[in-house]
Design brief:
Elements lengths: L2 E5 L3 E3 L17 E4 L4 H6 L2 E6 L8 H10 L2 E6 L1 H10 L11 H31 L5 E5 L18 H18 L3 E6 L6 H11 L6 E3 L22 H8 L3 E5 L12 H4 L2 H9 L2 E6 L6 H9 L14 E4 L7 E2 L7 E7 L4 E7 L4 E2 L13 E9 L2 E9 L2
Parallel strand pairs: 3-4, 3-10, 4-5, 5-6, 6-7, 7-8, 8-9, 9-10
Antiparallel strand pairs: 1-17, 2-11, 12-15, 13-14, 13-16, 16-17
Helix pairs in contact: 2-4, 3-4, 4-5, 5-6
């Protein structure tokens, strides 16, 4: 394993909250998205969304190019398993027809995982090509992913652990080709809190910066996400239990068809205030009203600041570019060296007792890492210095 090159990050962080932040949001506030935008709406929104997987080959160049040109964050609704299964086996969404993902989806994953990973590699490569590596992109992973664990699956559903293993391989594949990616995991809000706790533990929730709703049927006017039944998750319960801000969606219905009924509840000040206080940090309108830009502009000054943002809000001054040699700027007599992947997972941690520690001090300690980008962080005495490293082989 060779370290081919070092790439200086563009931020110098004092006690940054997490490497997964890596300056995704430039400020801590509620964020607005749209499926597509131009004119005054483009000026108001923070991100644009698109569905990944509908083409056999990457077909999202327009979205990523537009986001890059207009300084918007791409938020990818990654439905690659489902779209690929539709092409290969004719599997439909569970509420659309048969044969369905709820019947044969688990078998498809068991049979076709290498193909699924190749499709993810195609889309991640295309995303990196057209958006670049200067800013973050978010992948909202596989809406209704839990359906592959259901007992009605032919041959039996995948176990939660198996779903976690598959998802881990998918995330690793994305990061290998688009290392500036961060992740959100879809929630199935009709499943109980007990299920959610076990499910997200199996998926390793620490790899995800967000939890997201999908299907366009979230309920901002309710304490429950979409299923008003005792034992099902509320917005607040999700945020307090997992500590991850929530991205909500609106504007589409069954089979992805446009549905404007979800618009008005998400531009209601009382609803927004309640949901933001419960941990919701963003909403995307796929089929917004013509007043969307005006509504955003009006509401921005009225709504509260979210209780948590997935950024290092203590990032205050530009990074100093440093050579890949000994680091002499650490003043304490002890501290920590960490290697962190871009999902925020700590891969290696070592205590040191000298204020002269090389960025490369982790090498030669038996640590094996996949090709991709990682963070090397030195911390001590309320000071943090970090670099991004790129491993090519």
């Amino acid at each position: 394993m060779k370290l081919k090159s070092l790439i200086a990050l563009t931020m110098f962080l004092f006690l940054a909250q997490a490497a997964s932040a890596d300056n995704f949001f430039t400020e801590c506030r509620f964020h607005w998205g749209a499926g597509n935008a131009s004119g005054t709406l483009l000026d108001q929104i923070d991100y644009m969304t698109g569905w990944a997987g509908s083409g056999e080959d990457f077909n999202m160049s327009s979205l990523f190019s537009s986001c890059k040109t207009n300084n918007k964050t791409p938020v990818i609704i990654s439905y690659i398993i489902a779209f690929t299964a539709r092409r290969d086996w004719g599997l439909q969404d569970c509420n659309v027809g048969t044969p369905s993902l709820c019947q044969q989806g688990a078998n498809y994953i068991r049979d076709s995982l290498p193909r699924i990973l190749r499709q993810y590699a195609k889309y991640a490569t295309g995303a990196e090509q057209y958006f670049g590596s200067a800013n973050k992109m978010i992948w909202c992973m596989e809406p209704d992913y839990e359906q592959y664990s259901e007992g009605g699956q032919t041959g039996g559903g995948l176990t939660a652990a198996q779903c976690g293993t598959v998802m881990g391989q998918i995330l690793d594949t994305i990061l290998a080709h688009a290392p500036n990616s961060v992740f959100s995991m879809d929630i199935s809000p009709w499943k109980t809190e007990t299920f959610q706790t076990t499910w997200y533990a199996a998926l390793n929730i620490k790899r995800f910066s967000f939890i997201n709703t999908s299907g366009g049927q979230s309920t901002p006017g309710s304490t429950f996400i979409s299923n008003n039944q005792t034992g099902c998750p509320t917005w607040k319960w999700v945020f307090q239990t997992f500590g991850t801000p929530i991205i909500a969606d609106a504007g589409y219905g069954t089979g992805g068809a446009a549905d404007a009924t979800g618009y008005a509840p998400w531009v209601n000040l009382a609803n927004l205030t309640a949901r933001i206080n419960d941990g919701c940090i963003a909403v995307c309108q796929d089929d917004p009203a013509s007043t969307y830009a005006t509504d955003i502009s009006t509401l921005r000054s009225e709504i509260p600041t979210p209780p948590k943002c997935p950024t290092g809000t203590n990032a205050i001054i530009p990074f100093e570019t440093r050579a890949p040699a000994a680091v002499n700027g650490m003043t304490p007599s002890n501290g920590t060296l960490e290697i962190i992947d871009l999902s925020g997972r700590t891969l290696y941690s070592k205590e040191f007792t000298s204020n002269n520690l090389s960025w490369d001090a982790w090498k030669g300690n038996g640590l094996r890492m996949r090709p991709g980008a990682y963070i090397v962080r030195l911390q001590g005495n309320n000071q943090s210095i970090q670099k991004k490293v790129l491993i090519n082989e």
